[in-house]
Design brief:
single chain; alpha+beta; 6 helices; about 40% helix
Length: about 190
């Protein structure tokens, strides 16, 4: 039986407490994700959208010199994100208005929506550009950081993604450089 003299009051958990601080060590974040499941569910933001994180696994630090919160790698096993100490492999997440899914399924559900809007001749190219940019993103982001006078701000995500995709085209595809640069400029002007 519990000793009532030893008990104390626990304040109500708020949704704000579930916001992920990527500067915290990965062990702390894994415990936080487990503690806030099923309510209020840990979350972070990406391009201004709230992404709910249902499950995550600690990955030992691989001595990366990357800003906490940076997506390091994506594949079927999940989305690897740099933390203050170590990396978090997000294995289950939920996009706004969607149901929770394994991270690999989320990546596979996003692209078909866009592929359906593209002409049949361009679907293969779009798929190659999307998956290639994601696969090489850690290296592309390092190159971009070296080329830029100032680092990107959080609100510049669309510009950063456009430039990363263009850089991927220049380095890893046979797309003519003038076409890749022209598309990047035109896209950034429309943002």
């Amino acid at each position: 039986k519990q000793d009532d003299e030893q008990s104390n009051y626990a304040p109500k958990i708020t949704k704000q407490e579930a916001l992920v601080n990527w500067h915290e060590p990965v062990k702390t974040l894994v415990l936080k994700i487990r503690a806030f499941n099923p309510f209020p569910i840990c979350y972070s933001t990406l391009s201004g959208e709230r992404i709910r994180i249902w499950k995550g696994v600690a990955v030992p630090n691989q001595d990366r010199k990357v800003v906490p919160g940076t997506i390091i790698h994506t594949d079927k096993s999940g989305i690897l994100v740099q933390t203050g100490e170590g990396c978090l492999l997000i294995t289950a997440l939920q996009l706004p208005g969607k149901k929770p899914l394994h991270a690999g399924e989320v990546l596979n559900t996003l692209l078909p929506e866009y592929l359906a809007k593209v002409d049949d001749r361009d679907r293969g190219l779009l798929q190659q550009l999307c998956y290639g940019t994601l696969r090489f993103y850690p290296r592309l982001s390092i190159y971009l950081a070296e080329l830029l006078a100032k680092p990107f701000k959080a609100k510049d995500f669309d510009i950063e993604a456009t430039l990363a995709c263009s850089l991927y085209q220049l380095l890893e595809t046979r797309i003519p450089p003038h076409a890749a640069v022209n598309e990047a400029v035109a896209t950034c002007q429309n943002l």
